[in-house]
Amino acid sequence: MIKPPVSGSYAPYYETYIKRLVGTDAIKLLESSLLDFKFLLSEVSDEKENFRYEPSKWSVKEVVGHVIDTERIMCSRALCIARGEKKALAGFNEVEYVSMAQFDNRTLYDLSHEFGFVRAATISLFKSLRDEDLDRSGTADNNLITARSILFIIAGHHLHHQSVLKEKYILEIP
Question: N or C end of the chain, less CB within 10 A?
Answer without folding.
Answer: C
